[in-house]
Amino acid sequence: MTLLDAIPPSRASLPPRLPVHLWPATTRCESGGIRMGGVALTDIAEEFGTPTYVLDTEDVRARCREYAAAFGAANVAYAAKALACRAVLRWIEREGLALSVCSAGQLAAAAAVGFPADRIILHGDAKTPDDLDRALEYGVGTIVIESASEVARLAALARGRQRVLLRVLPGANRFGLDAAAALPAGPDGDRFGLPAGDQLAETLRRIADQPTLDLVGLDFYLGSQVAGFGGYERAIDQLVSIIGHAAREHGIALREINLGGGHAVPGTEAEAEFALTAFASRVRAVLHIACERYGVPMPRLVVTPGRAIVARAGVALYRVLAVRRDVDGHQLVAVDGGLSDNPRPAMYGARYTVALAGRASRHTTRPTTVVGRHDEASDVIVRDAQLPGDMRPGDLLAVPGSGAYHVPLASNYNLVPRPPVIAVHYGDAWPVMRRETIEDILARDLDREGGEQAECGQGGQAPGRRQQEERHADGG
Length: 476
Description:
Distance between the termini: 72 Å
Helix content: 25-40%
Number of helices: 16
Number of strands: 22
Largest sheet: 9 strands, mixed
Radius of gyration: 26 Å
């Protein structure tokens, strides 16, 4: 039995001001306070401070199970770029999902929890030598080739016969995006991958000719926050067409398609949840029709969600530092975090919801903009939210939908330490990533001037390297 089974009315008990589809599965609201995983957010803020990311273990694992039910666990690869701490990767592994990494660091985190190598996919437009060396040493199951120049390099380094996919560019002008909130993958000219055509066919032949590479299929990525199915459906038709052409013209049998992720996660009440079950049914039907049209066997279908697994499970907690009320009724609230722990509103125009978490208020709401501590025009966490008109310093605010890309994109802007990640489950709360300290930051700051302004030689020139070494050897 899970915590969600034990308290089935919890999400339904949320008042209208907390839309249930934006919050973790175990969230409940009582007497003005919010609880996640059986733990009061006020208690977490008191024990661990703010800003803090709170992560609902049950919600992460429930989302894994939803994707596993829709596609089969082995056909779902969690995109580690969304959140790659060891605790999350351990949960992913236990649910039987595969894992997509795109750096030596993410691979090291996977190795630290013993993630099975054959369930790991290495992505990346520009894989460094270290990325490839570590991936091949660990024995990752699949590597995605994203440029023609990678073929010879990977073929020379591969140990045994390496399973590979070839990334195909989506052709943004043809596919488009189906929701205003969607973030395109970027213009084809700015990304690696192969567009359909002669270059793609030639690269397929080059890979197939390498005895150390086992070309099994095609990889694709449409974009982020995609709510509709149309772009994926058109992509499937194109990918199956490529598979048919490769088989007929070159005798290359491609047996797998990775459709990537990008499935939308709502950030505001007006945005709907991604219809996962309907999506899985629809893309299978479209794949079946396309295979019949082009006369090819049904390939294995893989998806790579990241945000869709962890975003809703995370809530960011902030303390209010200052409040300003304008004559037009608008309220401005400054908190103790912001751009350094969530740059997504500034980078992408990402939209969030915010709620007062620490007390009940009977005051009427006011349009409220929540800003960060960094004195930047772009440091806005939530704009024009409805919060009680009696907001005051010390209040606790909770921002749902903070489980994906907050930790990976967090920075030390203004030398501000990064927040901890606190997991909650069955009434227990514990850190899975500790809070960074100022000492951590300064540990990388080497207190050494270099190029000392020593006594100048003739002509006013500073002493050369040999002179400096001699001086240091003499104790000068």
